[in-house]
Amino acid sequence: MSDINPQRLLSDLRTLSAIGAQADGGVDRLAWSEADLAARRWFAERIREAGLEPRVDAALNVFGHMSGSAGPRLLTGSHLDSVPNGGRLDGAYGAVAGLEVLRTMVESGEPLAARVEVVGFADEEGVRFAIGLIGSLALTGELDLEQLRDGRDWQGDPISQVIASAGREVDRMLDAQQHMHSIAAFLELHIEQGPRMEADGVDLAVVTGIVGVYRQQVRVIGSQNHAGTTPFRLRHDAGRAAARAAAGLRELVQNVDPEAVANIGAMQFDPGGVNVIPGRAAFTLEVRHLEESVVHRIVETFNTNLETISAEEGCRAETERLSWVPPARMDPAQMERLEAACQELGHEPARLWSGAGHDAAILARHVPTGMLFVPSIGGISHSPQENTSDEHLVLGARALLRGVRAAAAQIK
Q: Cβ distance 220 to 241 under 8 Å?
């Protein structure tokens, strides 16, 4: 049987990385930004050039399948958006590789091509609205975009308004939830985004599960006052309370479970004057682990500790859950097919869980889902230094092609 075209795969990755490219080599394609929309137009055009039918849903997920074919189909792909000044491969690799796989099958006249569909998901990262995975949540029907009317981005614009405004250029809209009924299974190819595969000399890895990701907004309310005239003992310093809670995060998490991770990635003090005691502080908390009970225990412990610290500082704290994506286990049958695909290429894959969230975590709640990793050089991701060797990029796409063939053959 025919195999993928390595030069075309790598050329497409280079072209896509130029959309939203930064001077330091990074890529900036925040969800529904002009760069992200340009990437979606580019992806739809590549689908059309391949003789496939491009379609877009209300969340601006971009799909492509053989014209005239009917479901159910195997879906493959990943997301096209990025974090601010992120890497060129996170998400983009899986989307482009999925297109290359379907293109290869169509060009070689494989009947199974009619059972395959490619997708470029929207807003997997969640950095613009602190929600994330909006595209796959909308597809599966777990999130009605109208529910986002009150949510706002960093500029204060309503999320639903941003999506609707961006979607005005789309002329072939598709009902996301109705479309979900035509999806029989999902396979996603991705860079590992961590150091394990490179450290162990592993070329391919079959993912066993994806960690749960919990995000919450924290607000600490104290009393704004003059920093030069108010002694420490009489302050109600919201900034100090927030900083104390943040400083103890690592020890708190590791005391619950050494394998868990958490992060406070954004913190603001108000009013932000150099000589003003912060009257308010706000920050985000993110917690990840493969076991749901561990995540909830960490969040509960953190919030209890936060209340104690705030009271000690003469402040009060408020917390609001932003999003919760439970841990997801990959489908055993899809894992076996991906493992066999790797072995067909002469590689014995590792089996690893994923510490990063993926669209596969959402799809796994609805259809049999599998995921495949290739190594990340230096374990670096969400950075301009994110990289994977061309050899591994090609190898991963070749393994995906074989996995897609095997999975599509099982669709009735």
A: yes
Q: Is 329 exposed, middle or buried (0-12, 13-18, 19+ CB in 10 A)?
A: middle
The per-residue pLDDT string of the chain (412 residues; one tens digit each, 9 = 90 and over) reads 799 999 999 999 999 999 999 999 999 999 988 999 999 999 999 999 999 999 998 888 999 999 988 889 999 999 999 999 999 999 999 999 999 999 999 999 999 999 999 999 999 998 777 677 888 988 998 877 776 665 665 555 666 666 777 765 554 556 766 788 899 999 999 999 999 999 999 999 999 999 999 999 999 999 999 999 999 999 999 999 999 999 999 999 999 999 999 999 889 999 999 999 999 999 999 999 999 999 999 999 999 999 999 999 999 999 999 888 899 999 999 999 999 999 999 999 999 999 998 999 999 999 999 999 999 999 999 999 999 999 999 999 999 999 999 999 999 8
Q: Is the four-CA dihedral 17, 21, 25, 29 of positive or negative sign?
A: negative
In angstroms, the CA 378 to CA 348 distance is 21
Task: Scan for tokens 């974090």, then name that residue.
Answer: 83
Q: What are phi and psi of 358, to 5 degrees?
A: -145, 160
